[in-house]
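Batch job 17 of 40 flagged for manual review because the log was empty.
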Amino acid sequence: MASANEHGTYLLTSESVSMGHPDKVADQISDAVLDSLLKHDPQARAAVETLVTTGLVLLAGEVTVHNGAALRALEAVEDTARQTIRAIGYDDPATGFDYRSCAVLRALHSQSSDISQGVTQGQGLHAEQGAGDQGMMFGYACDETRSFMPLPIHLSHRIVERLAKVRQEGVLDWLLPDSKCQVTIKYGGTAPASVHTVVVSTQHTEDVFDSSAGQLAATARKEIIDHVVRPVIEQEGRDLWSDDIKFHINPTGRFVIGGPHGDTGLTGRKIIVDTYGGMARHGGGAFSGKDPTKVDRSASYMARHIAKNIVAAHLARRCEVQLAYAIGVAKPVSVWVDHFCTGQVTQQEMIQLIRELFPLTPRGIIEYLKLERPIYTETARHGHFGREGDGFSWEKTDRVSDLQAAAKSIMIEV
C-alpha cells in the first residue's frame, strides 16, 4: 500500500470503479431492490445478493416485507433490475449484456426467524432491537480534502464519476459504461504532496481503437486526460496538476469487451472501493443489498459520521473509529478510536465523548441517520463516503459544536 524511501516520502494508491463495472452493476441492482422495498415498507428486511454475467442476472438472498405494496414491489424485482441496468447504460445487445435481453432469475426467500427475533423490537432475549449480525465496523476521516476523505480515493471516485458524466452527456460519445481508475499520491510525512500516477482503463467503441498501434487512439487518450482527469485534479484547488504526472490510459491497449460480458460481477466485492481506498481498516462486511438493521452497513455509516465530525471539530487531523456488535444485542460490545497522535484530547477522552454524544444502538443509529428511506442505489456507485446530498446523512458535520463544547467541559483546550 505504501512504500517509504530514505527521504521520508512514500506513495499510496487507491482505486475506484465505475457504475458500469460488473461488481458495481451487481451492487446497484441489490440496492435498487432494497430501495423498491423501503419505499413502501420502511421496516423491510433485506439481504440481497446479485450475480451478473453474460446475458444473466441472478438475485439471491433473504427478504421480509410487511404490506401488500412492498410485496408487489418484491414481485417486480425483475423490472427493477432491468431499469437499473438501463440507467447504467447497458442498452445495446452488441455489448453482450443489455437490459432488454438479459435473463433475470430470482432465488429470494424470507429471513430466518431465528435471526429475526434478535433484531425485532420486543422479541428474543432482549427487549431492545439488537444488531443484525456480529462484527466490527470502521469509520475514517482526515483533513486531506474538503470531503474529509483521503486524497487518493477522493480523486479516483471523482474521475470515474466524471467519466460517467461525459459519457452520459455525449461529450465523449465513444465511451462505454465499464471503467476503472487508480490514483497514486506522493506523500511527504503524512501530508499529500503531489499526484504521482493516474491509471484509467475505460471501455470504448471499436472506432477509437488504433489497430496499427494496438492501442486506444492517441486523440482518445488525450481526450480522457483533457476532459476527465485534468478538470478533476485542478478542481481540488491545491496546485496538484503538473506535467510530471505519469499516465497509463488503457494500458492493455484494447477494451471493447467489458461489463458483465467481460467479467462476472458480484455484490459486495468492492468493499475497499466503497470505503477509504485502503487508507483505513475495514471490518470485512459489505454494504449493498442490506437493510439498515444490518450493522455492517449502518454502523459503518455511523462510524464515518463520528470520525468526520471529530476531524471537522479540529479534535484530530486523522481519526479512525471502530464499533463492534454481537448479534441480537443492542449496545456495542466495544468502542475504539485512533487519532494517530494528532488528537487534541486523549483516546480515552475521545471515546467518552463518542459514547456521550452519539447513539450507538442499531435503532438509535437508524433513527439518527434516517436510514429507513430509499436512499441506497446512489451509494452503490462512486463511493459511500465523501458525498453530498440529502441521502448521505452520515456526511453531515452537525455535531462539531457539541464535540467542541464537550471537549472543553473535560478541561481540554481545543
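Reviewer: the log was empty due to a logging misconfiguration, but the result itself is present. The first strand starts at residue 2 and ends at 4. Unflagging and moving on to job 18.
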